[in-house]
Amino acid sequence: MSAHTKIELSTLPLRTEPLLPRFDSAPPDPAYLPTILIVDDIDLNRRLLRGILKVTPCRILEAKRPSAAFSMLDMEKVDLIVVDMVLPEMSGMEFCQMVKSDRRTQLIPILMLTSIQGIENEVAGLESGADDFLLKPLRPALVRTRVGTMLRNKALTDSLEEAETILFALAQSVEHRDRYTGLHCERLATYSIALSHALGLPKQEQQALFRGGYLHDIGKISIPDSILFKRGLLTEEEWDIMRQHTIRGEQICSPMKTLAPVLPIIRSHHERWDGSGYPDGLTGEGIPLLARILQVADIYDALTTARPYKPAFSHDRAVAIMLEESRRGWRDPELVPLFAEVVGRHGELTAGEAGIQRSLEAMRRELSE
Ligand SMILES: [Fe+2]
C-alpha cells in the first residue's frame, strides 16, 4: 500500500464494544468540555470519527485542510488534534511539525491516524511530533480509550501550567511590591540567559534560568512588610528572617516537579564564593552554577537601576564594583568578567526596556523551539 493510499472509514464496520472511557453521568457544562480538532480532507472519515466520539464528552471542530486547521488553532483553545497522515497542502507529519514548533500550540497532543503499518512509519510520525498513533481500520473502543487518555493528560498538563502561571504571577507581585524598578524579573532572565549562552549551557539549564529570573525571590512573600520595607538598617533578628526567603522560596516551589531544576537557584542565589553567604554557607564551585549566574545578573541589575538609596550606575561603574567584589572573594572570579563582556557586547541588553523586551521575546521563542 503506498504512503498516499487512504482507507475510507465508512467502509469499516462499527463495533459495539463498551463505550469507554465514560466520564460522568451528569451532563457537563459545554463551556468546560475539552475540544478536539479533526483534520482530514475526506468528509466521511470526519463524520465517522465524530460518530465514534459521540459518547465522549467533548466539543468537536473539523478542518478539511491544514490551512483551515491553523486558522482554527489561532482562534480556539484546542485540547487534542486528530490528524490523518495523508492530507492536502502538506503531509500529516509536516502538519505535526508546524503545530509542535509553535509555542502557542506545542502542548496540544496529536493523535495521528494512518493506514500504513510499520515501525519506520511510526518512528517518522513520532519524530515529527505526533504523540500517538492509531492504525486504520479504526476500532471505536480503542479510539475512545486513546482519546480519553490523551485528554486526561492534557488536562493534567493544563493544571500544571495553571499552577506555574499562578506561581509566576505571585513572584511578579512580590517583585513589584519590593522593587522600585519595572521589568526586574525580565532583565534578570535576559542577562542570565545571555551569560548561559556564552557558557554553552544546554537549553534545559537556560530554561531553568529563565524561570529562576522570575521565581528566585518568591519566598519574600513570607517576609513581613515591616522587615521587607524597613527604612534603615535591619536588626540581626530581622536579617535572620530576611535570609529565610531563600528556604521559603524553595519550599513553595518544590511540590512542582517541573520546577526541580530551578530549586538550586532559588535556594542558593545569596551564597558567596568565600562562604560568607546564606543559607548554607557554600563556597566556590560548591555553589550551584545556575545560582552563581543568576546572582551575578541580580547584582548587575541592582547596580544599574535607580533605587531609593542610590542612582542608576553606568555599565562601566557597575562592572568595576562587581570586579572589586570578585577580588574581595565574594563573587565567582571567572563568571564576573565573562558577564561584563557578554552584557557589554549585546548593546540591546543595556538599551532600556524596549531592548530587554525584544531580547526576552527572542530568547523565549528560542527556548520553546
Ligand atoms: Fe533574594
Explain briefly what this protein structure is.
This protein is an alpha/beta fold and 369 residues long. It has helices at residues 43-52, 66-75, 92-100, 119-128, 140-178, 184-198, 203-215, 225-228, 236-253, 263-268, 289-304, 315-327, 335-345, 352-368; strands at residues 35-39, 59-63, 80-84, 110-114, 132-135.
Note the overall shape: elongated
Spans with pLDDT under 50 lasting ≥5 residues? 1-25
Distance between the termini: 34 Å
Radius of gyration: 26 Å
What's the story with the biggest beta sheet? 5 strands, parallel
Structural class: alpha/beta
Helix content: 40-55%
Number of helices: 14
> Looking across the biggest beta sheet, what order are the strands in?
2-1-3-4-5
The whole-number mean of residue pLDDT values reads 82
SSE string? EHEHEHEHEHHHHHHHHHH
What hetero molecules are bound to the protein chains? fe (ii) ion
Q: Using DSSP, what is the number of strands?
A: 5
Strand content: 5-15%
Give an overview of the whole structure.
This protein is of the alpha/beta class and 369 residues long. 52% of the residues lie in helices and 7% in strands. It contains 14 helices and 5 strands. It has helices at residues 43-52, 66-75, 92-100, 119-128, 140-178, 184-198, 203-215, 225-228, 236-253, 263-268, 289-304, 315-327, 335-345, 352-368, and strands at residues 35-39, 59-63, 80-84, 110-114, 132-135. A 5-stranded parallel β-sheet has the order 2-1-3-4-5, sandwiched between helices. Strand 4 (110-114), helix 4 (119-128) and strand 5 form a beta-alpha-beta unit. Helix 6 runs antiparallel to helix 7 (203-215), helix 6 packs across helix 11 and helix 7 (203-215) crosses helix 11. The protein is elongated and about 75 Å long. The protein binds fe (ii) ion. Fe (ii) ion (FE2) is lined by residues 216-217, 245, 269-270.
